[in-house]
Design brief:
Layout: H1 20-25, H2 52-72, E1 78-79, E2 88-89, H3 91-106, E3 113-118, H4 138-144, E4 152-156, E5 162-166, H5 173-176, H6 183-190, E6 194-197, H7 201-208, E7 212-214, E8 240-241, H8 245-254, H9 258-281, H10 288-303, E9 307-308, E10 313-316, E11 341-346, E12 348-350, E13 353-354, E14 357-362, H11 369-388, H12 395-413, H13 421-426, H14 430-433, E15 478-481, E16 484-486, H15 489-496, H16 499-502, H17 507-511, E17 518-520, E18 523-527, E19 532-534, H18 543-553
Parallel strand pairs: 3-7, 5-6, 7-8
Antiparallel strand pairs: 1-2, 3-4, 4-5, 9-12, 10-11, 11-14, 12-13, 15-18, 16-17, 18-19
């Protein structure tokens, strides 16, 4: 009970935030002067006769209030999984709310507008009663930091006032799921201005009298999925704007705040250490999925990271040429052989924010000459891009730089022949061996939003058409740099059959690399005012570092 309350005519008030002492002693209730009116004819307050029953009732009331305060005074105003894990203050989400409000005001959104958001819903697996492990919808997480399901939230654009609407849960929830939290609990826990129940939303919005309800409605440029616009009974009473909000808030999420950048450093740090644990234990004879299990165990045990940001890719040998290996039909279930290259693409997640890191290394701890060439080619492309990154640089130009670096190395090694780099670029030779985009924005989603907001259209050419953004780099962006060099059967066979490409291919030399799969070296990189910051810096990356680390560990 947060609001001021009283018993009968007592006038005794106990407010949320009072110290325990204030709660007990508020207005000196033990004299009962605030519990009942002085007896008729009594002028001296020190000689007042008082009703014992009413005093006892007041004492019981204040005792109940103090019990509430004992429970609520220690409610954290931050997110933290446990000792030693990162503490994320509620101010981070409050700042995010302020950012979008300021942006809308500067874009002349009409006064009196209120934004309305719907959080993720708890759902069951198909037609069973088994709950799917809940993770919060990313926009709602960015704004409120709420971990629980079935909430809604509103923000007054004019003053950034925030309101959460919580589900009214049945009493049986306490038996099956745990304590029934109060509105007061969520108000402090998430640092919002007000908390009401979802069944009160029409009443509360009517009190606000919004000039318009701004709701999300748009298409995700990566998934091609349409955002689910919030709805509730009685929504038709309000003027609803579905066109203003989506791109504005997506663009806000592109530039990470200093607080968000700290989270990105944390998830990258823990993910790097988890990758190193995998490198220590992997060897011929292990199963691919043992790498996945080791990564998840370390990230959760040491970093408090219950989830990973995407399906773990733990590919060995030729499986490493399959870009998104590890799915249900290819569940990291191959035995690792002596001589295999391993490509392990995994990132841990904390408070919704995720890393995305790929480590490639030889299972037996020693590169063959061919493996060393492919690895060094990929690493050279990675480092060339990072050295060129700074605000104002076009991301498609960085993709082309990586492709050009790979083609140049292939010419030098004799895999590509009979032409210049420019001629081979016109024939899209780079896309045969790097058939994906160079990298993507990352944050609350592994393929984070905003890639094609206020951006040039997607380039419809092999390889680069999969680039997840065409924007110029901006300070505060976090983006992956993940060049890859693969010898995938499907693309190589198609190139052999294409005269415009086959004329550049030294088939005898290329065949020596078939079966090794591929290499990807993926880092998380933040764009700074003058260049870039490598977030995933704590991994052995050069051939010498990888071999030294693995042989020392084993």
């Amino acid at each position: 009970v947060v609001s001021t309350q009283s018993t009968g005519s007592s006038g005794i008030n106990a407010e949320y935030g009072d110290t325990l002492e204030n709660c007990v002693c508020r207005k000196g209730y033990r004299t009962c002067l605030d519990i009942e009116r002085p007896s008729e004819g009594c002028k001296d307050k020190n000689k007042v006769r008082y009703n014992t029953k009413e005093c006892n009732e007041a004492e019981e009331y204040l005792s109940r209030r103090c019990n509430v305060m004992r429970k609520t005074k220690d409610i954290p105003d931050y997110y933290q999984m446990g000792p030693g894990t990162l503490k994320i203050p509620n101010s981070l989400f409050k700042d995010n709310r302020k950012r979008i409000c300021d942006r809308l005001v500067s874009n002349n959104v009409p006064r009196g507008a209120v934004m309305l958001f719907e959080g993720g819903k708890q759902e069951q697996q198909y037609d069973t009663d088994r709950d799917i492990e809940f993770q919060q919808e990313s926009y709602f997480m960015w704004l409120f930091g709420v971990m629980e399901a079935d909430f809604l939230g509103a923000i007054d654009v004019d003053n950034s006032e925030s309101i959460l609407f919580m589900p009214r849960l049945p009493a049986s929830y306490a038996v099956w799921m745990g304590e029934l939290k109060t509105p007061e609990y969520f108000k402090k826990r998430y640092g919002v201005d007000r908390v009401h129940y979802t069944d009160e939303i029409v009443t509360i919005l009517n009190q606000l009298r919004p000039s318009a309800l701004l709701v999300m409605d748009g298409l995700n440029s990566d998934s091609k999925s349409h955002f689910q616009t919030p709805s509730f009974e009685g929504m038709d009473q309000f003027k609803v704007d579905t066109t203003t909000l989506y791109n504005e808030i997506a663009d806000c999420r592109v530039q990470k705040s200093p607080g968000e950048m700290e989270i990105m450093r944390y998830v990258n740090e823990v993910s790097c250490e988890a990758h190193k644990e995998v490198m220590k234990m992997m060897k011929p004879g292990r199963m691919e999925y043992e790498g996945e299990a080791t990564f998840k165990h370390y990230a959760y045990m040491k970093g408090g990271m219950r989830f990973v940001g995407y399906t773990c890719i733990c590919a060995s040998g030729n499986n490493a040429a399959v870009l998104h290996y590890g799915h249900a039909a290819e569940p990291n279930d191959k035995r690792v052989n002596d001589g295999d290259m391993l490509l392990f693409d995994m990132g841990a997640e904390y408070a919704g924010y995720t890393a995305d890191i790929t480590a490639s290394f030889p299972a037996n701890g020693r590169f063959t000459d061919n493996q060393k060439f492919v690895y060094n080619t990929c690493l050279k492309a990675n480092k060339a891009v990072q050295a060129a990154m700074r605000p104002g640089v076009g991301w498609p130009d960085m993709h082309r730089l990586a492709e050009r670096t790979i083609v140049e190395e292939f010419i030098q090694e004799g895999l590509l022949v009979n032409g210049t780099v420019e001629e081979m670029t016109e024939a899209f030779m780079g896309a045969i061996f790097m058939p994906h985009g160079l990298g993507h924005l990352i944050g609350l989603d592994v393929h984070d939003v905003g890639g094609y907001v206020n951006a040039p259209p997607r380039i419809q050419e092999p390889g680069i058409k999969y680039l997840r953004t065409t924007r110029d780099l901006e300070e505060g962006m976090v983006i992956t740099v993940e060049p890859g060099v693969y010898f995938g059967d499907a693309l190589i066979e198609a190139a052999y059959a294409n005269p415009e490409q086959a004329k550049f291919m030294n088939k005898d030399r290329i065949e020596q690399f078939r079966g090794m799969g591929g290499v990807r070296i993926e880092d998380g990189v933040a764009v700074t005012a003058n260049g870039s910051e490598l977030l995933s810096h704590n991994l052995p990356r050069t051939v010498e570092e990888v071999e030294e680390f693995m042989n020392r560990s084993n």
